[in-house]
Design brief:
This protein has helices spanning 27-30, 50-54; strands spanning 4-9, 13-18, 61-62, 67-68, 73-81, 84-92, 99-100, 105-108, 111-117, 128-129, 137-139, 144-147, 156-159, 164-167, 171-172, 178-182, 194-198, 206-217, 220-232, 243-249, 255-260, 265-275, 282-294, 302-309, 314-319, 324-330, 344-349, 369-376, 387-392, 395-403, 408-414. The protein has 429 residues and is mostly beta strands. β12 and β13 form a beta hairpin. The relative contact order is 0.14.
Length: 429
Amino acid sequence: MAGCGRWEYRGAIVRVWCGPLCPLENNTCDGRELNGTGPIDQGCGDDENRCAGSDRDPFPVRFSSGRVESNPIVVFEAPPVASIFFGYRLQYNSANQRTNALSRKWPDPLNPSLLIQETQPAIHLPDEDLHFVGAGWSDDFSQRLTFKSLTATSQIAWVKGDSIVTFPTVGISFSGRYELVDLGATVPPGSARWLIRTRELNQRSEVWAFEDVQYNTASGPEHFGRLKRHAATAGAADTTGYYGYNVNYLPGGQIANVVDTLGRELGFVYAELKILGPPPNRLISRRLERVQYKAAASSAPIDVAVFFSNEVQLERIETPSLSGYVRFLYWSRPTDCPNCSSLLSDVVYSADIPTSSPLPFAPVQSGELVTEHHEYENATDGHRPRALRSRGIGREYGYTYRNGPSLNENYQFDMHIDLGACGTATCAN
């Protein structure tokens, strides 16, 4: 059976089926790999996988794969220009396997047989990040281009918070919605090498610019593209845009600030985990600690978000300007699930004016508002569990999955719709 579809049955069940020409989302999307991110040429939604497109609804679970995408959390927003969002927002995705870059013992470039202790965090694996929010979390500035190689036939992936757009080579994406342009390896240092621009008539004309970053792996140097600019443009010939923002980086690789055309600025402050004492003193890792906003270059910065985390999990974000917080609880994973330490279970908002702050990872308190709650299957084979139940304000869904060699069928059940009187003795089942 070729193609994709979905049906509603008595208003309560949504059925998704996919045939050989339109498979369900790949394993790279539901996190089943035990060895990190899978092949980059497999789309994870957005526009590259047609069945993934048919399971988009306003709720956080993608029922073609069972992965959880939180609704975007807007922590701060300045007045938009040209429909380009300028502020700070983040999103959780259970398929996001980005990890914190660390300082480690690494071969000396001049003598590879000699290991030297790095004094600063450095990227050595494709999923490592120097702008780390928390496991599973990303923001608008975490976007990245990844490559199998930098050859003319390299497959390229544009990795965003909620999806991956894939390009067979430099040129048009598989879906035809985007075009990737390579300006060449000889661009000046700090300048963008790659441009992605929209190409559909019904899309707003935009461009994303990425600069080339080389990092060292155990098998040799590799590359990725990090976001340099996002802008609204006047058309395909406009590669700079009439309004947008630039992302500026510190020498250590973390983001220094983001500045828009109007001179407004978002600044980033990082918490540092250090080892002090006998040489070599070293900085082991960084994680995002606060976001600051300046309305103009001459303005004093104000905190708009303060982050509280352990070394892996984002525990809460306090918003000083609003005198509130949003905090996050995580699933208690089984011991045989190595990739499941940070599966989001709850998104919890404070009361309008909280009188106290709960202890880290405390159960939901009286007066708090839970906007998302997720429950997962109890996996015993080591793969990342899929969501079995998800609820929020005014809605609740259950999910089942049935995968076969030629046909995949997943079901979404609306738990709030009354199907009427039970006609048989087995109705409860």
